[in-house]
Amino acid sequence: MDLTPRPIADAESRAQRQRRRWVPIVIVALALAAGGVVVTQFLTSAIDYYCNVDEVGVRDGCVGQRRIRVQGIVLENSLQQADGVTEFMMSFNNKTLQVRYQGDPGGVFQECIPVVAHGRVVDGIFDSDRIEVKHTNQYVEKNKSRFDEATKETAACSQSPE
Amino acid sequence: MTTTQTTATPATQKLGIATTLALIFLLFSGLIFSAEDVVQGSTVRIMYVHVPSIWVAYLAFALTAICSAVYLSNRSRSLIWDRFAGAAAEIGVLFVAVSLVTGSLWGRLTWGTFWVWDARLTSTAFLFITYVGYLAVRRLGGTFRQRARRSAVMALLAVLEIPLVHFSVNLWRTLHQKASIADPNAKVKLDGFMLFTLFWGLISFTMLFVWLLIHRQRLMALEDAVQDQGLDLAIQQRRTEAGR
Fold first, then answer.
1. What is the CB-side half-sphere exposure of residue A123 using CA atoms within 13 A?
2. A80 and A35: one domain?
3. Quick one: A29 and A99 in the same domain?
4. Residue A34 structural domain
5. How far apart are CA A29 and CA B158, in angstroms?
6. Among the listed residues B12, B130, B20, the one whose alpha carbon sits nearest the alpha carbon of residue B64
7. C-alpha triplet B89, B90, B92: angle, nearest 5°
8. Hey, is the C-beta of B188 within 8 angstroms of any chain A C-beta?
9. What phi, psi does A95 have (nearest 5°)?
């Protein structure tokens, strides 16, 4: 018994079959691309991880007493730690926000570094229960000259987090 | 007499030795020669594994898509393309896992947390799950050609996630920092030997990928041959039974 598949009758029907095979792939790819546009264009505020300090109480999703995440830079000379409470001022785009955090933030938390604080605004103070340090995309060798380090430290407070 | 088949050739043996030497140098360069970061300290050394790992994963998944496209468009339907696609995807999944684990450790030491559900981390986790799914699809059974066809279609769709993962830090606000060297608009912000070590990591991990890919592809060919042999044997047994 010969079980060899029969050759397709003519070249045109073969081409038609090949075209038919690609149609669902193209449709699914277009659907995915459309989904990507929807996600990037319309759901940005939902996907954004945080509000900036200057958007608190202004931008949709950053208002009221709801729980939010806020990003800003820890202001120089504003950090105070006493009785297990960490307090500091966070700034972004010339707006500042006072933050109170119960405990010692982990990571590389320090002044002049961008942070994301989780919590809610209570009586004008951001009452936070979680702080994450946001590292920039700059990597500077520790053993560079003191001049470079000084420049870096000076620049750190004026940098804008990305 | 038994014959032993190996996946090694003189060329892959040389590549293996070169890769090992490159990785040893990376180890010294990353742990000893390169300096600590002014903010992160020694934690920065994780970057020399984390970044090359995700680079290899992107490369592997792109190769999976290219080989899949070649398989689907080529009239000969040569299964070698399917095997390269499958081998690259397996290695890619391994390296995404390495990238997720090293990133998580770095996050704990720098951010203060192992994981956050921001766009970069979430999309990378989704990429990992997608390609684990791709590998599962390859094992659904059926003939080699059925396996090749369905997995090729999935590979062409899954690769679309890579730009989403890579540009997620630009599209949305994420805790994860933006690219330092893979962003054409950004100035390189890595001090001297850090940059060199990172590039050396990219080169040595790429060599490791090529070495693993060649061996895994050859091993897959042997696995397919064994499966074919098993089928031939089963048919032979049925014929013998029917002839009794």
1. 1
2. no
3. no
4. 7-47
5. 10
6. B130
7. 60
8. no
9. -110, 145
- Rounded Cα distance between B121 and B109, Å, is 16
Considering only CA atoms, which of B72, B66, B73 is closest in space to residue B89? B66
Closest by CA position to B54, among listed B131, B109, B137: B131
How far is A45 from B43, CA to CA, in rounded Å? 32
Closest by Cα among A109, A46, A49 to A73: A109
A139·B41 Cβ contact <8 A: no
Q: Which CA distances in Å does B28 have to B21, B45, B214? A: 11, 11, 27
* Chain A residues with CB-CB distance to B157 below 8 A: 25, 28-29, 32
More confident residue, B5 or A100: A100
Q: Where are the beta strands (DSSP E) in A23-139?
A: 51-52, 68-74, 80-82, 85-92, 95-102, 114-122, 125-133
Nearest to A100 by CA among A74, A126, A78, A75: A126
Of residues A36, A47, A139, nearest to B44 (C-beta) = A139
Residue showing tokens 């390169």:
B34
Q: How far apart are the C-alpha atoms of B62 and B227, rounded to whole Å?
A: 28
Cα gap B147→B111, rounded to integer Å:
43
The total number of structural domains that make up chain B: 1
Question: For residue range A58-95, what is the model confidence (pLDDT) as tens digits?
Answer: 888 888 778 899 999 999 999 998 888 999 999 999 99
Nearest partner of B31 among B195, B197, B206, judged by Cα: B197
Give CA–CA dist B86/A133, Å, rounded. Answer: 39
pLDDT digits (tens, 9 = 90+) for B23-65: 999 999 999 999 888 888 899 999 999 999 999 999 999 999 9
Q: Does B1 reside within a domain?
A: no
Whose structure tokens read 């895994």? B216
In contact, B52 and B204? CB cutoff 8 Å: yes
And the tokens for B169?
């830090």
List all residues of chain A from 56 to 115 with a beta carbon under 8 Å from chain B.
Answer: 71, 105-110, 113
ipTM: 0.75
Q: What is the pLDDT of residue A88?
A: 95
* CA–CA dist A98, A130 (Å, integer): 15
The CATH number of the domain where A64 resides is what? 2.40.50.140
